[in-house]
Amino acid sequence: MTSFVLTGGHVVDPKNNIDKKCDILVKNGVIIKISENIAVEIGVEEINVSGKYIFPGLIDLQVHLREPGREDKETIESGLKSALCGGITSVVSMPNTTPVTDSQAAVEFQISRAEKLNLGNLYPAGAITKGQKGKEISEMWEMKNSGIVATTDDGVDVQNEGILEKAMEYAKTHDLVLMSHCQNEALSAGGVLHEGDISTKLALPGISPQAEDLAVYKNLVLAEKTGCKLHLLHNSTKESVNLIKQFKARGVNVSAETCPQYLTLTDTICDNYNTQGKMYPPIRSQDHQDALIQGLKENTISVISTDHAPHLAFEKEKPFVESVWGSVGVECSFALCYTRLVKTGELSLSDLLAKMTFQPADVISVKRGDLSIGSVADIAVFDLEKEWEIKVDEMQTKGGNCVFEGMKVFGKPTHVFVAGDEKLVKIGKNW
């Protein structure tokens, strides 16, 4: 393992309130020193990153890696490489694999595979219920012992309140965060996009904001009762922001996230039956986006994740009702949010990074997401002046679906380190 000094860069580490030009010394995969003008010792490599920004490695709490079962869409290898190309050094893998990650063996497979690849940090989430069917709670304790950091039925809301309450009690007992996909199935059944002007224009069945709002309220009430640590996934509505704010004020242990698609796009993306805009939950109207951004400003929403959901290109080319949900996103999530939120003055760079580094780390209770002395050297170096166009065929992901295709954004990683090992040879090339 090499020792090196990053020189000439601007360090931004929100957890430690660092936002200045300085150098970083790394030895044996650990951050040793952060200060101005560090002398380069014999045997220590100097990496000049003048004009660049040095961040903690980014963390994504919601990534679908598809392995095992759908390796044609994504593998652990392609997904982790794709994440690294976006400056993301740690991902939480969702359990909707085939078979579902609901057992000790399934968790151990993912961890073993990631360790052999030696790319980025993979933290598995285990299913709340067996087969994600919402009927019987999975082997939560056994999966915790094997390495899960969270439990979730992501992609499916646990509709039975009794099962959900019991799952929250188990999660609290086993010191796990329960990540909830909030969608009332009775209200969303058959819907394919946000219920509003665009759904009316296209004569397509819509999904009302209340389908999410009711499920968010249910989860918050049960979290308050059980004392469970709750994380609400991919929030998309203004009322969900209000509810989260209210229950946080009541002392409920809840965190919440949103995703780049809800911050950069509105439901007009679905006009002309554009299936790339089909998301679950749906991309909503401007008033909901405005509320989400306000929630970020107030830190009511403390995390930005991607809900990276790779599919084959032809699956998105079907008629809107038949088309699959979701988009890839790990390679462009920071650039999208930096361009939309920081360059427009909505958030400071430090505030954005907090939602993509140490705050997600706090949700899953891992020691990542900061540049503290003695911490593991997961580091991303970005050129914030680099403007580029998002093109899915230039990405490392195997997915062919990208709702952000053609958007021009700023910010591209030039170096990415995981435990002090440089992983990024060249963006999108020569892996």
Main sheet specs: 8 strands, parallel
Rg from alpha-carbon coordinates: 21 Å
Percent of residues in β-strands: 15-25%
What's the number of extended β-strand segments? Answer: 20
Biggest sheet: strands side by side, in what order? Answer: 8-9-10-11-12-15-16-17
Quote the average pLDDT. Answer: 97
CA(first)-CA(last) distance: 19 Å
**Helicity, in percent?**
25-40%
Shape: globular
**Poorly predicted runs:** 426-431
Oligomeric state of shown chains: single chain
List the helices and strands and how they pair.
Elements: E1 4-7, E2 10-13, E3 18-21, E4 23-27, E5 30-35, E6 45-48, E7 53-56, E8 58-63, H1 76-84, E9 88-93, H2 104-117, E10 121-126, H3 140-146, E11 150-152, H4 161-173, E12 177-180, H5 185-188, E13 193-194, H6 197-202, E14 206-207, H7 209-226, E15 230-232, H8 238-249, E16 254-258, H9 260-264, H10 286-297, E17 303-304, H11 313-316, H12 333-342, H13 349-354, H14 358-364, E18 379-389, E19 408-418, E20 421-422
3D structure, described in words:
Helix 1 links the parallel strand 8 (58-63) and strand 9 (88-93). The chain is of the alpha/beta class. The longest helix has 18 residues, at 209-226. Strands 8-9-10-11-12-15-16-17 form an 8-stranded parallel β-sheet, sandwiched between helices. A 6-stranded mixed β-sheet has the order 3-2-7-18-19-20. A 4-stranded mixed β-sheet has the order 5-4-1-6, with no helix packed on it. It has 14 helices and 20 strands.
